[in-house]
Amino acid sequence: MRILFQIRCLMLLFISQMLLSQEDHVLTKFRVASLISQPEIVPCELSNNSESLCVAIRVKGTPFKDGPYCPRAIGETGGIYPYDGQTNPGLRVLNDAFFQDMESDGYDILDEQGKVRVLELDFGSGEPPPIPTDVSVCIEVKKIEGIELKYLMPFFPQFDLKPNPMDDALDIVGLAFSGVPINGQPPSIADGVHGDGVGAGNLPALDPCGGHQNEGFYHSHLFAESINQQLLSLGIDEVACSSLQQYPKDALFALAMDGFPIYGAFESGGYIPKRLDECNGHYGPTHDFPMGIYHYHVRSDTIVNIPACLKGVVAKTPLIVKTNTSEGESLK
User: Fold this and answer.
1) Nearest to residue 109, comparing CAs of 198, 221, 204, 213?
2) Buried/exposed code over 64-73 (b: 16+ C-beta within 10 A; e: otherwise)
3) Which residues contact 62 (CB under 8 A, 6 or more apart)?
4) Do residues 116 and 70 lie in contact, with contact meaning Cβ atoms separated by under 8 Å?
5) DSSP label at 171?
6) Cα Rg for the chain, rounded, in angstroms?
7) Which 3 state secondary structure label does DSSP give 93?
């Protein structure tokens, strides 16, 4: 059996390498400047304990200029955040009006001078300071230079027995062609980081592209490639994502961690897709897959517009983080 499996893997590897060499393959869409090396096909173990082949994509920890996050002075504008407090909830710009609303909701995030309380976390220089429990803070994480991220996604996607929810900030939804990882739901301000009330009122600020640093590398919680469309639709013109290319509403711009593609909110031809499943996906033809493929769409019914779940099997170790001081640390 083992020999048959090895023969099958060699055959699949040969086929996958031939597909990967095609100039119009979706993997050629990755932004060269964000890549550390060209995508390659490697053996891998999947979350259902089967052995298969995965695409290995190595990207820089922060492939573009990020920020701003927390405003430092009165009258200054920072990034954005989906606010779930009582006063004016929704996607908000981090400005004076927003922090006054937080104060009205009982979050002590402004100091005696009226400035935002900012806590900077540096995971590259020992243990970061504890997050205070007596006041609220706007949190920033310092970028660590030289971090490399290696993502593994099945080259031949297959459906799982049940959908995998993307409701935690550390759940990895996929990887955009810009080299930016897409993660699950951002922490709640009203309910705390894990929804249990711990850390309520603390704000892990997002920049205008909808992402932030996490332990020294960047990931997004909103689709950065369409964030400006979302901001303008909400009447927000104070900030914009200027560091990342904005894609048409029907464009393919990312791969989910189960290997299935992610498209904008619209289908080819400019119409809103129908009969989407609980993960905001469906099967059908696209520009890139005219014969049809299962694919996800950006959600149009919620501010955090990532799919609520993934339908496919993912790699058992989907992400390996390499720093200047470590050979590799496997993460969720």
Assistant:
1) 204
2) bebbbbbbee
3) 143, 147, 213, 217, 218
4) yes
5) -
6) 21
7) strand
Residues 6+ apart with CB under 8 A from 313: 46, 47, 48, 50, 154, 157, 158, 159, 160, 258
Question: Which residues touch 33 (CB under 8 Å, ≥6 apart)?
Answer: 63, 179
User: What is the pLDDT tens value at each position of the chain, 332 positions in all?
Assistant: 455 444 444 544 444 444 444 445 788 899 888 999 999 999 999 999 999 999 999 999 999 999 999 999 999 999 999 999 999 999 999 999 999 999 999 999 999 999 999 999 988 877 777 888 899 999 999 999 999 999 999 999 999 999 999 999 899 999 999 999 999 999 999 987 765 556 789 999 999 999 999 889 999 999 999 999 999 999 999 999 999 989 999 999 999 999 999 999 998 877 889 899 999 999 999 989 999 999 999 998 899 999 999 999 999 999 999 986 555 554 44
- State the pairing for strand pair 211-214/252-256: unpaired
The total number of residues written for the chain in this structure: 332
Mapping DSSP onto H, E and C, the string for 236-274 reads CCCCCCCCCCCCCCCCEEEEECCCCEEECCCCCCCCCCC
Q: Which of 17, 54, 31, 28 lies closest to 320 in space, CA to CA?
A: 54
Q: At 253, which amino acid appears?
A: F
Contact (Cβ atoms closer than 8 angstroms) between residue 208 and residue 236: no
Q: What is the pTM assigned to this prediction?
A: 0.88
Rounded distance, CA 304 to CA 25, Å? 29
Beta carbons of 216 and 149 less than 8 angstroms apart: no
